[in-house]
Amino acid sequence: SHAFPPPPPVPFSPTQFGLPQVPRRMHPLSPLVRFGRSIVGLAVIIGASTASSSAASLSSGSGGLNYGIDLLILAFAALMAVISWFVTSWHVEGDALQVQTGLIRRKVIRVPLSRVQAVDVVEPLVARILGLAEVRVRTGGGSDADARLMYLREDEAAEVRGRLLALVHGL
Question: Is 12 a residue whose pLDDT tops 50?
Answer without folding.
Answer: no
